[in-house]
């Protein structure tokens, strides 16, 4: 369980670009070493990825990757959530040039309270059945 305080918020309609195709998949970027080193942030990354990922697909079209969710942690422990729309421009090669434009919402979050499972319970919950 995570409880956040919202320090700053810019809603989705306040930016120039705020369109997203139906059925599109987000790309995730977690910036900062806390996402790899701190147990609280590791579990938060897991929760955020599971919450926003949507259904699992075998293949994704390049046009279906139309927005990026960027999560970073400041030195003060504040979490910055930024969501951008992805534009593809011609580059003269097979690979298009990528352009990011603010889509929103933008949020500055502070972790207020957490209640994490014990490590043995966490490992049991994450256990995958054999295929």
What's the main sheet like? Answer: 6 strands, mixed
Structural class: alpha+beta
Order of helices and strands: EEHHEEEEH
**If you average the pLDDT, what whole number results?**
84
Radius of gyration: 17 Å
What percent of residues adopt helix (DSSP H or I)? 10-25%
Low-pLDDT runs: none
End-to-end span in angstroms? 30 Å
Shape: globular
Give a structural overview.
- Strands 1, 2, 3, 4, 5 and 6 form a six-stranded mixed beta sheet that branches.
- The protein is built from three helices and six strands.
- The two termini are about 30 Å apart.
- By secondary structure, the protein is α+β, with helices and mostly antiparallel strands.
């Amino acid at each position: 369980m995570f409880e956040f305080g919202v320090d700053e918020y810019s809603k989705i309609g306040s930016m120039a670009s705020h369109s997203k195709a139906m059925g599109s998949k987000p790309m995730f970027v977690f910036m900062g070493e806390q996402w790899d080193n701190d147990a609280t942030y590791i579990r938060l990354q897991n929760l955020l990825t599971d919450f926003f990922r949507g259904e699992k697909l075998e293949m994704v079209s390049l046009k279906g990757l139309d927005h990026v969710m960027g999560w970073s942690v400041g030195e003060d422990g504040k979490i910055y959530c930024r969501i951008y729309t992805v534009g593809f421009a011609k580059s003269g090669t097979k690979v298009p040039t990528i352009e990011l434009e603010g889509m929103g919402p933008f949020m500055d979050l502070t972790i207020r309270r957490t209640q994490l499972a014990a490590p043995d319970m966490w490992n049991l919950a994450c256990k995958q059945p054999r295929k």
